Amino acid sequence: MVFGLTLADKRLRPVRRPLVIALTVISVLLTLHVLRAEPLRWVPLSGPKLALDPSRSAVKQHELAIVQQQDNLYNSFPRPTTTQLIKDFGIRPIKAHQAISDECLDHWVSNSVWDGPCTAQTVEESVIDIVWTWVNGSDPLHEQTRGHYIQETGHHPKNARFREHDELRASLRSALHATGKWRKNAWHIITPDVENPDDSNQRLGLLPQWANTAVTPNRVGDRAPIVFHHVNYLDMLGPDATLMARMKSNSGEPRCFQRSIGNHAIEVQFSNLDPNVVSENIIAVNDDQYLVLPMPPAAFHSPLYGPVFRMDRGTKVGGDDTGTFDSTGEWLSLGWTCHVLNQRFGTRYRPYIVHNARSLSLPLMHEASLAMADNYAYTPLSRFRGMHHIPPEVEVNTIFASTHFVIERHREALLWSWVVAKWGGRDGILTPEKKDQMWVEMGGKVEKDMIDPVRITRKRTTRDGVTKNLQDAGLQTPSSSASKESIGDTSYTWTSHDGYQVQWNLPPSISRERCLGSTSERAWDRFLDLAQGKHLVCGDAILTMLKTTSESSGLSIYLPPPSTPMRVPADEPVTLPVVLPNDPPALPTNARAWAVRLIHRYSYVTATSPTRFFGIENVKGAKMHMKGIDASKTLAFLCINDDMPEEEEDQREMDLLYREYLRKKFPVPLDCELSY
Question: Which UniProt key words apply to this protein (predicted)?
Answer without folding.
Answer: Transferase
